[in-house]
Design brief:
single chain; alpha/beta; six-stranded parallel β-sheet; binds zinc ion; transmembrane; Fatty_acid_hydroxylase
Length: 644
């Protein structure tokens, strides 16, 4: 019988789940039967949703099926608890000083943890089975304090030792590679790592959770409140332990030493992940103490990290701003799965828009420039800082000074910290705003941090896209900073540049900057019709459909206009915004830069990076030095940056 490969694979994984080990298969209960289902796995919640909806469980008097609704609600909140811990730990402006492992989470880890929520599907079915088998459990009162005490007692007496000993067993040679290596394969723990494990591990975890709940229920002290409280507290503590952020005050365990044995800390469990031979407990280090597996560094390290003194100064800062409310929802501390892919407006983001709008108003009123992300390259720490201003605010005359003040204080902070290069992104280097950064350099002549607009590399990327044999180009936005540099560079190479501008004065000024024998190659044009026979358009200003229609078929539209032009013509090519791909040895990068693909950054970002890697000592502000275009390009390639 011939199976299609996908069906065969799925059948095998389903068999894995239920059948004993055979030589062709992995160990039983080591992989999820729905692991190849993609997003279709969520259909598994279907029967429960159908039961809750079909029985109208929310109506009064339908107590028989309310358990089903509670189960779904509880599991939705469980997912939300993991998401909240992710958001908290990734808000680097709050947590940067208390991070335990300093490296960032890269795309590879994000992809590996994509299906972190498999355990919720398993456990909701276990929950449903329990309610199905014990109909009496469907009629719980809302709350019974006695049940809480019984559950706590059973947790300490049964769940903790059960988890401790099975966890130690999972670290044995026979079991580790089959069942536990998955959980340990995430280099940087985070709340989603807490959920990532094999079915067998989660069955043990389910048992540890069920004993206190069922125990309390069997003695008649079960309640709806107990189920919510215990399960959510359990998740909360699991997420906390994996958050990679030390949340307890340093002095707490010195003031109350007995607490050391009652509650673990994020540092405590992170030590288990990094060293793997100690700190096996679920939540109570008491069991490590009894089992002789306590890591003696647990509290000294906890104290050191919570002091917040152990921070690394970045070598390079890319000073970005928010484009609009939509793009603000692409921040890594919102949805990791969203920020790890190129930005686009997707339906589930629509719901967050009002929150994003409100945040924009709050940031306008109160926020200062803040740290949003980072990565490491060639042993140097690179950070993204964000000026709390949105694209439209740069065009409000009354907002200009406020924005410059924000940028200035960010520069001064970087200078004080010892940052080597700060690169101004997008509108933060707008000519009309601060002369491409000139304002700050003139005002603070003794800055140690180098201020860079990075546009020399942007010009280089655009120019290197243009085929070498081109004899004529048409240039719009011709007298802008980039337009001028592109025109001069091409003019010097004796390429005819049709420069679209109505200002003869500005055109002449640029023309005079090229050697006399090249000046004839720069030609002022005032209408798009002048480019009717030119197949290379370099667009630095938004152009309409009517204007694009004037280009001959087969035209290539190169562009440096933000936002990029909408491509109306099917018989033409449209270049993307100038960007470069980071070297392959970049570490800890897990966020896409706006609409760019993974691992790519805007050319001005790359320009600042090259400035830092080359240890150039000048500021790159104001007009582009055309003589440096080739030099910067070669330096970028030398450091492993590649055109996208
Ligand atoms: Zn372990
Ligand atoms: Zn863990």
């Amino acid at each position: 019988m011939v199976f299609c490969p996908a069906i065969r694979e799925r059948t095998q994984t389903i068999l894995h789940f239920f059948l004993p080990h055979s030589s062709q298969m992995g160990a039983p209960l080591s992989s999820w039967p729905w692991q190849n289902f993609g997003s279709f796995k969520y259909l598994l919640y279907g029967p429960l949703v159908a039961m809750a909806v079909g029985s109208r469980a929310w109506q009064e008097g339908k107590t028989g099926q309310v358990w089903c609704l509670h189960l779904l609600l509880l599991f939705a909140i469980r997912g939300f608890v993991h998401q909240l811990w992710w958001s908290f730990s990734s808000m680097l402006f709050l947590t940067r000083k208390r991070r335990i492992i300093k490296e960032g989470i890269d795309f590879e880890q994000i992809d590996r943890e994509w299906d972190w929520d498999n355990f919720l599907i398993l456990q909701i079915f276990i929950g449903a089975m329990v309610f199905y088998l014990f109909p009496s459990s469907r009629e719980f009162p809302l709350w019974d304090l006695k049940g809480l005490f019984i559950a706590l007692l059973l947790h300490v007496a049964v769940s903790e030792p059960l988890f401790y000993w099975t966890h130690r067993a999972f670290h044995s040679e026979q079991l580790f590679s089959r069942y536990h290596t998955l959980h340990h394969s995430s280099p940087i723990p985070n709340s989603f790592t807490a959920g990532r494990g094999t079915p067998l591990e989660h069955l043990v975890m389910s048992l540890a959770m069920m004993v206190p709940l069922l125990g309390a229920s069997f003695v008649g002290a079960g309640s709806v409140g107990l189920y919510y409280a215990y399960v959510l507290l359990f998740d909360f503590l699991r997420c906390m332990g994996h958050s990679n952020v030390e949340v307890f005050p340093g002095g707490l365990f010195e003031a109350f030493p007995f607490l050391r044995y009652l509650i673990y800390t994020p540092t405590y469990h992170t030590l288990h992940h990094t060293e793997k031979n100690s700190n096996y407990c679920l939540f109570m280090p008491l069991f490590d103490a009894l089992g002789g597996t306590l890591n003696i560094k647990s509290w000294s390290l906890q104290k050191e990290i919570s002091s917040g003194k152990n921070i690394q100064v970045p070598d390079f800062v890319f000073l970005a701003h928010v484009v609009d409310v939509w793009s603000s929802l692409h921040a890594p501390f919102i949805f990791r799965s969203f920020s790890a892919t190129a930005f686009r407006v997707v339906p589930h983001i629509l719901l967050l828009w009002p929150g994003g709008f409100f945040t924009m108003l709050m940031m306008w009123g109160w926020s200062k420039t803040f740290l949003v992300s980072f990565y490491n390259l060639h042993g140097r720490l690179h950070q993204y800082w964000v000026v709390p201003r949105y694209g439209f605010q740069y065009f409000l005359p009354f907002a200009k000074n406020g924005i410059n003040n924000q940028i200035e204080s960010a520069i001064l902070r970087a200078d004080k910290l010892g940052v080597k290069v700060l690169s101004l992104a997008a509108l933060n280097k707008n000519e009309a705003l601060n002369g491409g950064g000139t304002l700050f350099v003139n005002k603070h002549p003794n800055l140690r941090v180098r201020i860079v607009h990075g546009n020399t590399l942007t010009a280089a990327v655009i120019l290197n896209e243009i085929p070498k044999d081109v004899k004529e180009v048409f240039l719009t936005g011709a007298t802008s900073k980039l337009g001028r540099a592109i025109a001069m560079y091409l003019g010097r190479k004796k390429v005819r540049v049709l420069m679209l501008t109505l200002s003869t004065e500005r055109f002449r000024k640029i023309q005079k900057e090229v050697p006399v024998d090249c000046q004839q190659y720069l030609v002022q044009v005032t209408k798009y019709q002048a480019a009717q026979n030119c197949k290379t358009w370099i667009v630095g200003k938004w152009i309409t459909f009517g204007e694009q229609r004037l280009a001959p078929p087969g035209t290539y539209f190169h562009q440096f206009v933000v936002p990029p032009i909408a491509g109306f013509r099917r018989d033409c090519h449209y270049g993307k915004l100038a960007a470069m791909r980071l070297p392959l040895d970049v570490k800890g990068l897990g966020m896409c830069e706006y609409t760019l693909e993974r691992g790519a950054v805007h050319a001005c970002h790359a320009g600042g990076m090259v400035h830092c890697l080359e240890e150039w000592t000048h500021h790159e502000v104001g007009a582009i030095d055309v003589d440096r275009i080739d030099l910067v390009w070669r330096a970028a390639l030398k450091h492993g940056l590649r055109p996208v």
